[in-house]
């Protein structure tokens, strides 16, 4: 049986935590072990929303991993060459000009 006790969380004598711990699972055993009164069992009917079909089989999910782009390293190197080629050339030309200027003196 499936119950939606969202509206009962604040009123539950055992506190909301007890109900939240049972979320999404079969909590019949925990409910029975708590020794609920007849009025508590009757109150449950107000929150009943349906029954779980035990014959329905839930298919197992297939997990797919996204393949990483194998060209990432090459793209990174292309970007590095593209963005560092001009400054490196400017430094190289500056060094050559400085050496030539120093020789003239």
UniProtKB/TrEMBL annotation:
Tell me which SMART domains the record gives: Cyt-b5
Q: Where is the Cytochrome b5 heme-binding domain?
A: 1-53
Give the residue spans that cross the bilayer. Answer: 81-102
The alphabetical list of record keywords is: Heme, Iron, Membrane, Metal-binding, Transmembrane, Transmembrane helix
GO cellular component assignments: membrane
Q: Name one GO molecular function term.
A: metal ion binding
Q: Which domain of life is it from?
A: Eukaryota
Looking up InterPro entries in the UniProt record yields: Cyt_B5-like_heme/steroid-bd, Cyt_B5-like_heme/steroid_sf, Cyt_B5_heme-BS, Cytochrome_b5
Spell out the Gene3D superfamilies in the cross-references: Cytochrome b5-like heme/steroid binding domain
The question of whether Nuclease is a record keyword is answered with no
- Which PANTHER family does the record associate with it? CYTOCHROME B5, CYTOCHROME B5 HEME-BINDING DOMAIN-CONTAINING PROTEIN
Family indicated by similarity: Belongs to the cytochrome b5 family.
Q: What is this protein called?
A: Cytochrome b5 heme-binding domain-containing protein
Which organism does this record belong to? Panicum virgatum (Blackwell switchgrass)
Q: What is the lineage of its organism?
A: Eukaryota, Viridiplantae, Streptophyta, Embryophyta, Tracheophyta
């Amino acid at each position: 049986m499936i119950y939606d006790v969202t509206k009962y969380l604040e009123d539950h004598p055992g506190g909301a935590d007890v109900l939240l711990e049972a979320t999404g699972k079969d909590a019949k055993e925990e409910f029975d072990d708590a020794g609920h009164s007849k009025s508590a069992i009757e109150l449950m009917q107000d929150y009943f929303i349906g029954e779980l079909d035990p014959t329905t089989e839930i298919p197992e999910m297939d997990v797919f991993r996204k393949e990483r782009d194998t060209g990432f390293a090459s793209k990174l190197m292309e970007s590095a060459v593209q963005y560092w080629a001009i400054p490196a050339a400017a430094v190289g030309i500056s060094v050559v000009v400085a050496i030539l200027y120093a020789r003239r003196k």
